[in-house]
């Protein structure tokens, strides 16, 4: 079973704040998270079922660290459509 600790962060960017006004929450997780696991987390911890979940796999950028090439960590980004009146304040800032 999925645990709430599998959610790394809620993204707060200009785009994600615009989407939040429309009822869409942007969640960053590890690459092994699936839509069904994320749906279970929202059901068990927040008491509602998301209307729709879209996922995006983001590969880490290649960066130079102290003259050596390295990579940032890969992650998954989920766009979760939240039903009207649902409370997700425990995840918010």
**Uncertain regions spanning at least 5 consecutive residues:** none
Q: So what's the overall shape?
A: globular
Total count of helical runs of at least 4 residues: 2
Return Rg in Å: 15 Å
Instruction: Work out the strand percent.
Output: 25-35%
CATH topology: Alpha-Beta Plaits
What's the structural domain tally?
Answer: 1
Task: Give the full name of the CATH homologous superfamily.
Answer: RRM (RNA recognition motif) domain
Average of pLDDT: 88
- H and E order: EHEHEEEE
Brief characterization of the structure:
The chain has 93 residues and is of the alpha+beta class. It contains two helices and six strands. The two termini are 26 Å apart.
How would you portray this structure in words?
Pfam families: Ribosomal_L23 (PF00276). Keywords: Ribonucleoprotein, Ribosomal protein, RNA-binding, rRNA-binding. Part of the 50S ribosomal subunit. Contacts protein L29, and trigger factor when it is bound to the ribosome. With 93 residues, the protein is of the alpha+beta class. Helix content is 22%, strand content 34%. It has two helices and six strands. Strands 1-2-6-3 form a four-stranded antiparallel β-sheet. Strands 4-5 form a two-stranded antiparallel sheet. Strand 4 (62-65) and strand 5 (68-71) form a beta hairpin.
